[in-house]
Amino acid sequence: MNSLVDAIGRRFLFSFDPETAHGLSITALKAGLPKCRNVPDSPALAVDVAGLRFPNPLGMAAGYDKNGEVPDALLGLGFGFAEVGTVTPLAQPGNPKPRIFRLAEDEAVVNRLGFNNKGHGSCLERMHARYGRPGIVGINIGANKDSADRIDDYRLGVERFAPLASYLTVNISSPNTPGLRNLQSRESLAELLFEVTQARNVVAGESGRHTPIFLKIAPDLADAELEDIAAEVTGNKVDGLIVSNTTLSRQGITSRQGSETGGLSGRPLFVRSTAILARMRHLLGPQAVIIGVGGVDSTETAMEKIRAGADLVQLYTGMIYAGPALPGRIVRGMADYVRRMGLSSITELRDSRLDHWLGISPDAA
Questions:
Q1: Domains of the chain
Q2: Contacting residues for 11 by C-beta, under 8 A, at least 6 apart
Q3: Any residues with CB less than 8 A from the CB of 16 and at least 6 apart, and which?
C-alpha cells in the first residue's frame, strides 16, 4: 500500500515545480498526511551518543523543515530524530527563483536556495511551543547573507536555541551563501568554534543543561583541510560532525539540469560524502560523534554510512524520489538485518568497512 501511495504522491508533487511541491508537502504534514505504517520500537536500533538516546539512527536532514513547522510530523514518519533549519537571525528571502532543480535521471537535486527562512523569531516561537514534547529535534543555525559579523550570527543562534534544542548544528558549508565556506579555513574556524562553544557553556551554566554542538562540513575539502577541521573540532571540544553538505562537483551527472549553479544532493553524492566521512572518522578517532548524510535512499546505503564510521545517518533528497514511507522502510530494514545477523545493537556495524572507504577517492564515480 505504501509503495502505491508513494507513487501517486510523487506523480502529484512532480506535476508542480520543486519549490511549490515542497510547500505542499509541508502543508500535508501539518494536516496529518500521509498516513504511514507505524515503525515498531526496536531496542537494538537505539544509539546513545552526545548524551542523547536516539531511538533509531535515521534522521531527517536540515533543509526540509527550514522554519521548524513539522518536526513532530517527521518523527511520526519513522525518523529517530529531525533537524530543522537552517535558520538565520533575520528573515531572508534567499536567492532568486527558480532555485531548485530536479535531476530525475540521476535521482538528485541541485539547489541554490541561499538560507531562505523566516528568521530566529519565527522558529523560536515554534520551539517554545513544542518544548517538553518527546523526540529529538536538532536546530541548524546559519548566518545572514548580508551580516556584518557572521560569527556573531552563530553565537546569537547558540544563545537563543541552546535552551530549546536537543542539539545544535553549526552550518558553515552551504555553497549558496557567498563566502560562507571560508569559515571552514583553520583560522576562521578556530574563532567560530571558540565563540559558539563559549556561548553554549554560558547557557549550560545558567540552565544546567549541556546542548551538544555539531559542525556541518562540505564534501569538497582536501585532505589538509580535513586535518585542520579535525584539529579544531578536537581542540574546541565540539561534540561531533555532520558529513556532509551538498557538493559543487558534478561527477557522474547525466541530467542537463546538472549545469545549474548550486549544491548537488542525492544519489550521486553517496560515494563522495561517504569517503569524506571515513577520512574524518580516521582523523577524529572512535570517540567523536559523526552523522553521515549524502545519498542515503535505502536500508543498505544507510547501513553503509554506519559501516564507514557514522554513528547516525540523515536523508532528505532520497525521500523526494522514494516518498514519505522511505524512513519507515529503512528503519524496518535495519531492524530486520540486525535480527537476522544476531546483533545486539546496530552500533556493532560501525567502522566495519572503514578501511574499505578510506581506500576510495571522493572523486570516484
A1: 2-358 (3.20.20.70)
A2: none
A3: 24
Distances (CA, A) of 230 to 103, 198, 223: 33, 19, 11
Task: For residue 223, count other CB atoms closer than 10 A to its CB.
Answer: 11
Reduce the DSSP state of residue 105 to 3 states and report it: helix
Q: Choosing from 174, 244, 255, 265, which is the catalytic residue? A: 174
Residue 280 and residue 283: Cα distance in Å, rounded?
Answer: 5
Q: Is 259 a catalytic residue?
A: no
C-alpha dihedral, 155 to 161 to 162 to 166, nearest 10°: -140
What separation, in Å, do the N-terminal and C-terminal C-alpha atoms of the chain show? 35
pTM, rounded to two decimals:
0.95
Taking a C-beta distance cutoff of 8 angstroms, is the pair 201, 241 a contact?
A: no
DSSP letter at 37 equals P
| pLDDT tens digits, one per residue of 7-17 | 666 777 888 99
| pLDDT for res 40 | 79
DSSP 258: G
- Say which range, 150-159, 181-190, 306-315, has the weakest mean pLDDT: 181-190
Number of neighbouring beta carbons within 10 Å of residue 9: 19
At 8 the pLDDT is 67
